Amino acid sequence: MQYDHILIRYGEIALKGKNQKKFLVKLQENIRHKLKEFPDVTVKRTQGRMFVILNGQDPHAVIEKCKHIFGIHSFSLAIKVENNLDKIKHAALFALQNGKDVKTFKITVKRINKNFDVRSQEMNQILGGHLLTNTQDYKVDVHHPDLEIKVEIRSEATYITSGVVKGLGGLPVGTSGKSLLLLSGGIDSPVAGYLAMKRGVEVEAIHFHSPPFTSERAKQKVIDLAEKLTRYGQKVKIHMVPFTKLQQRIFQETPDGYGMTVMRRMMLRISEQVCKNEGILSLTTGENLGQVASQTMESMNTINEVTNYPILRPLITMDKDEIIDISREIDTFDISIRPYEDCCTIFVPKAPKTKPKKDRVNYFEEKYDYQELIDEAVNGIEIVEISDEKQVKDDAFQDLF
Ligand code: ATP
Ligand code: MG
User: Fold this and answer.
1) Per-residue pLDDT reduced to its tens digit, 10-57
2) Does some domain include residue 349?
3) Residue 207 assigned ligand-binding role
4) Does residue 183 have its Cβ closer than 6 Å to ligand 1?
């Protein structure tokens, strides 16, 4: 005997009423995509349930993949047997003996199929008795068991599930539309991208770089960060914007202190243009209130003036240590701290204004017609498309240990 199913619980999606189907179809599609290297495995939806049917595949390798899929609240390993008392007993015993670090257990029977002629309460006793007489070291604990074995008698079959593995939660990526993530090489923006994805957002990324002042390795860093994000989605398309000329011009034309504000506004203008070209409806940044000069209330107000697009700022109220914790969890921290210069750090004045005034910024921007340089930057965008293949391989490699 072995586990042949994984039961997927989807938590929040269950609240979606009429829209539920759309969310479930997407979740099923996302699970299928992440499991495509297991050709025998199938993913099925039946009456309020989703199952991964293993067809002989090792369940642990499959669970490892499912841990990175948003929209899954939890999983349990499951065995499907006929509605036959002996077979159910046998499967329950298997579940108990295969639990890790289990000393106490509890059995919960749910009889949905009323044609099955043993009632739930009686089934609980029969199965509990069967497990106790056929094993030695286990005890029943109905309040805080190490392992809960659930037996669900349905019309088509009985499912025996054991234990619960926590999933990532959130909503299936792709159910909340697309956002353009302003991805720097820093710690914050990849975490912001991850959190947007958690709410079902599919991300494309935009990165501003200033060769030769920023190196190939700084660019590679951004590619590596985007690659980590693909673990939670399918692919990430990066728009690499050549920013050198525009940036140099900004710092020539703008008095010290205001250069950074103008530069941020240019980033937003270009990002909005990319959104329009790609049919994307929002931007996402790693901004965090009070962290640096560009992230004061005044600064954000002045910078935000140039776009009407909604800007998602998932990190806005977090503390740095909370952000770092997530960046370690998603494996981006070590990449983010590689020491290569980013375009902002190179040109930024020693003391950027923490309270830039809108009329001053507008006045400085009017001194020079930037449109041609903006167009040149947009037209010079290089696209880098990253798929999740490497992440899928890395995960498979981890499974061996
Ligand atoms: P991060 O750790 O994400 O770099 P930060 O704390 O360094 O953030 P800033 O440098 O002020 O903060 O950047 C704020 C946000 O602006 C970033 O989180 C990112 O979304 C965006 N951003 C900054 N520089 C770039 C860049 N070169 N390319 C794309 N987006 C950028
Ligand atoms: Mg930064």
Assistant:
1) 877 767 777 888 999 999 999 999 999 899 999 999 877 799 999 999
2) yes
3) yes
4) yes
The response to whether 286 counts as a known ligand-binding position is yes
Q: How far is residue 167's CA from residue 31's CA, in Å, rounded to a whole number?
A: 12
Average pLDDT (56-75) is: 91
Which of 99, 132, 166 marks a domain boundary?
Answer: 166
Of 329, 319, 313, 335, nearest to 232 (Cα)? 329
Annotated ligand binding at 239? The verdict is no
The percent of residues in the chain predicted with pLDDT above 90, rounded, is 77
Q: Is 218 contained in some domain?
A: yes
**Among 179, 182, 307, which is best to mutate for testing ligand 1, by the most ligand atoms less than 8 A from CB?**
182
Contact 158, 108 (CB under 8 A): no
Of the pLDDT bands very low, low, confident and very high (cuts 50, 70, 90), residue 389 is confident
Q: How far apart are CA 268 and CA 370, in angstroms?
A: 14
Q: Are residues 243 and 321 in the same domain?
A: yes
Q: What integer is the mean pLDDT of 199-220?
A: 94
Low-confidence winner among 97-106, 164-173, 279-288, 343-352 (lowest mean pLDDT): 343-352
Structure tokens at 268: 């937003």
CATH code of the domain containing 43? 3.30.2130.30
186 plus 158 within the same structural domain = no
Torsion of CA 132, 138, 140, 143, to 10 degrees: -160
CB 202 within 8 A of CB 233: yes
**Does ligand 1 come within 6 angstroms of the Cβ of 208?**
yes
Domain boundary among 111, 145, 166: 166
Whole-number Å distance, alpha carbon 249 to ligand 2 midpoint, is: 21
User: Per-residue confidence at 353, pLDDT binned at 50, 70, 90?
Assistant: confident
* Residue 117 belongs to domain spanning: 5-166
Would the CB of 184 count as within 6 Å of ligand 1? yes
Using the atom order of ligand 1, give the atom closest to the CA of residue 291.
6
Residue 26 structure tokens: 């997407």
Residues 217 and 346 in one domain: yes
Residue 346 pLDDT grade (very low, low, confident, very high; cuts 50, 70, 90): low
Residue 258 inside a domain? The answer is yes
